[in-house]
Here is the input.
Amino acid sequence: MDYTEILEKALNWGKENHPESNLHHHAAFANSVGYLVTGGSGGYGGPSIREHCVSHALAGDGFNVPTDTNIGVMTVQFPDGRLPRGGEWDFERACSFAEPICYGVLPAIASKVYNTEYCFDDDPNDLKEIEIRQRK
Here is the structure.
């Protein structure tokens, strides 16, 4: 299956299993599954905070370090090795991993992603929730 077929299959999976969700969450899910299965990024808009939360989650108990580059700051991940890397997942396991992050309660790491990563195509309600969390 090529990348576009995986994206479409993941989008359909998300819509079937989470019909109440909005397009932002469906796109984040499809793009995340595409990344997990193929290692490629892109797809349906984005990146979004939820997509970046999925890639940050791959570090497991490892860590992410903001690193200066000649094109700006980017986050470098140091995975703990318990999880496969992007491009090493099968479709079903990728769906199981990305589902709670893309459709569930916004993960705690979302605030850090919001402050350190360039994201767009976010659910406006997710942004409001992050802003409320940061004021506390």
About this structure: The chain has a mean pLDDT of 87.
